[in-house]
Design brief:
The complex is a heterodimer of chains A (270) and B (364). Chain A is of the alpha/beta class. Chain A has eleven helices and nine strands. The mean pLDDT of chain A is 94. In chain B, the strands form three sheets. Chain B has a seven-stranded mixed sheet, with helices on both faces. Chain B has a five-stranded mixed sheet with strand order 10-12-11-14-15, with helices on both faces. The chains are: A alpha/beta (270), B alpha/beta (364). β2 of chain A pairs parallel with β9 of chain B, so a sheet runs across the interface.
Chain lengths: 270, 364
């Protein structure tokens, strides 16, 4: 083992090193509380990178959900608030309407957005609120310990569907982003996934498109992100990524459901 | 200043506008809808924010969001809608976002009806949402008073970072009365030091009601309770009407109180020395003033358009020192002046110490 003692390191070396990667300004230096293998931390990072790249941190306001990301406001280094369960799009509406030149985004899980907050997201989209919605779909209620959500896959066992979700009595998985894409007020509605590095990069580009759509005042933008929940899926973190690919993707295909003609920043591709 | 004829709901809206409301979010519900409609016309004319929400739940959360940016935000509703807003009230209390809410009360429970009621008393003074808090509740009895209270409501909301609730009823909202409107104010443009405005050149700010650590939440609650004590000491409002020599005291608020004034006058014309104590702030309840009146009277008549809600506050203040009778009307039935007068004349005829008309004497 070749161990360099500190006094042996020429001081000038560090100064001359090129910084190729560091924590984005839009993230605080707090360690997150997320479980091993959870996608939330990486998604936070992607959002923060986009906010830095667009140079919007000082006039961006984030709205955190109820759910695992309830403390998102601690991790983003920007002005933020904590909404009641499902109400983030309404709260974001209130903020955006009085601060129309600011960038406002909500960060919501599938229980928060697609279940209890169904009405709030539907009508924010209907009105074409100029907000960005980051919709993290892991098919379960994570914070409360893995109960069935509207997004839970058919047959999927959860603590509140122990025999597996039966669509005939418990409903079919909800495709909320496709629903929103039918609404004229929505400028950008896509689904991405976190199951591989390549897909994660595509997720970041979609987040950038979504914020750009807001900057251009085109309407509501939403990026649904298929995310891993190893803890509540009862699988290893690496296997959780395969679970997204093999189980989630067939039900929730990635794709662009609505991309406004006016969206200017298309050169980034998908 | 000239006096103009104003409908209660519209007068409340115009008063809020003149007080400098920046943003209104609301949902239609009888009997307050004219307030929303008035805002829909006037706010855009003034370049201010108006938005019809998809529900009362959304409306209060829009108010919450707007209030977090330090602007003057408000909504209005009626009883069933207030029930839906209670979730938001609790978050607003927990995160100390200042805002103003108008409740034009109607008959309940459930869908009830659209007639005037006062049965939200418990809800707005005691149980406006989960957790320990009280909104500052002001109950006008006339359209002029509604205007005057609405005009100061944002000052109170921002002074204490609290929810101010203006509680009227369907009669007040729908009636027309001569009103002297206050002048248009330009609110102080300085941003509060807690407002979310984007973290430009300063550390980020967070507005939340979440404190997972028990000791931390306990200390937040201690601070909120201290604030409530301050409000309780400083913001009691009331009216005493012909109480100086009163032998009998009517206690009533809002629309019932103005009816009680007629009853008090009629009783006096019939030789009964009656007076009226009218709480204007329902929370904080002006208990010391009522407490001081109790020892001089031979009986108290509580009149409300509910089944006996403020009655509990009055009982706690009277503490068995004098008999209490209760006249309650529910279902949207408004008590007539002669009903109250009859109660007063009845009280003079009987031995108050033995006749509580079915009311339990409170002995402590």
């Amino acid at each position: 083992m070749n161990i360099l003692l500190e006094h042996e390191t020429p001081a000038t070396d560090l100064d001359q090193m090129e910084i190729v990667y560091q924590r984005p300004d839009a993230l605080t230096d707090l360690a997150t509380h997320y479980c091993p293998g959870c996608s939330h931390g990486v998604i936070h990072h992607l959002i923060a990178e986009v906010i830095d790249e667009l140079g919007i941190r000082s006039h961006t306001i984030g709205v955190a959900p109820v759910g695992c990301a309830v403390f998102a406001y601690k991790y983003f280094n920007l002005d933020s608030c904590e909404a009641a369960h499902g109400r983030a799009p309404a709260m974001a509406t209130g903020i955006k309407r009085v601060l129309p030149d600011h960038i406002v985004f909500t960060y919501q899980g599938d229980g928060d957005l697609a279940s209890i907050g169904g009405n709030e997201i539907l009508h924010a989209a209907l009105r074409g609120e100029r907000i960005t919605v980051i919709f993290v779909n892991n098919a379960v209620y994570g914070m409360t310990g893995g109960q069935m959500a509207p997004t839970t896959l058919a047959g999927m066992k959860t603590t509140s569907s122990p025999a597996g979700r039966n669509p005939l009595t418990q409903g079919y998985p909800l495709h909320l982003t496709e629903m929103l894409a039918t609404m004229p007020g929505v400028a950008y509605a896509v689904r991405r996934s976190m199951h591989s590095v390549a897909e994660t990069r595509k997720t970041k580009k979609a987040i950038r498109h979504a914020f750009t759509a807001q900057q251009q005042g085109l309407g509501l933008s939403i990026v649904e992100i298929l995310a891993a929940c190893p803890t509540n899926w009862h699988v290893e973190p690496a296997d959780a990524l395969d679970y997204i690919r093999d189980r989630m993707l067939p039900e929730y295909p990635v794709g662009d459901f609505k991309v406004s003609e006016g969206l200017g920043d298309r050169r980034l591709g998908d | 200043m000239t006096r103009e004829l104003w409908k209660g709901n519209e007068a409340l809206a115009e008063a809020a506008i003149r007080a400098g409301v920046d943003a209104f979010f609301g949902y239609p519900i009888t009997p307050q809808t004219e307030l929303l409609e008035y805002m829909a016309r006037r706010m855009p004319e003034l370049g201010r924010t108006f938005l019809q929400a998809e529900s009362e739940i959304a409306a209060i959360n829009m108010v919450y969001g707007a209030a977090c940016t330090g602007v003057r935000a408000m909504t209005s509703s009626s009883s069933p809608g207030i029930s839906l807003m209670q979730e938001g009230f609790s978050y607003i209390a927990g995160s100390e976002a200042p805002c103003v809410v108008v409740d034009i009360m109607r008959g309940g429970p459930g869908l009830g009806n659209i007639q005037p009621g006062q049965a939200d008393y418990f809800q707005i003074t005691r149980s406006a949402g989960h957790g320990d808090f009280h909104p500052l509740v002001l109950a006008p009895a006339t359209v002029q008073e509604a205007v005057d209270l609405a005009y100061i409501s944002f000052d109170l909301a921002f002074r204490y970072r609290t929810l101010v609730l203006l509680a009227g009823d369907g009669a007040l909202g729908q009636m027309m009365e001569p009103v002297e409107m206050p002048p248009m104010r330009t609110p102080d443009a300085t941003q509060p030091d807690w407002a979310l405005t984007g973290a430009k050149g300063r550390p980020p700010r967070t507005i939340t009601s979440l404190y997972l650590d028990a000791d931390e939440l306990a200390s937040v609650n201690a601070r909120l309770q201290e604030k409530l004590k301050t409000i309780a000491a400083a913001e009691q409002r009331w009216e005493c009407f012909m109480t100086d020599d009163a032998d009998l005291l009517v206690v009533a608020f809002g629309t019932v109180a103005r009816i009680a004034k007629s009853a008090v006058r009629a009783a006096r014309a019939a030789g009964v020395r009656a007076g009226l104590f009218r709480p204007i702030s329902l929370w904080p309840y002006p208990a010391p003033v009522l407490d001081g009146l109790v020892d001089q009277v031979q009986g108290v008549l509580v009149a409300e358009m509910n089944a006996g809600q403020m009655l509990e506050d009055v009982r706690a203040i009277v503490r068995g020192r004098t008999p209490i009778r209760f006249l309650g009307r529910t279902g949207g039935v408004i008590p007539m002046p002669d009903e109250i007068t009859n109660e007063l004349t009845h009280m003079t005829r009987v031995n108050h110490r033995t006749n509580g008309a079915g009311m339990k004497r409170d002995v402590e």
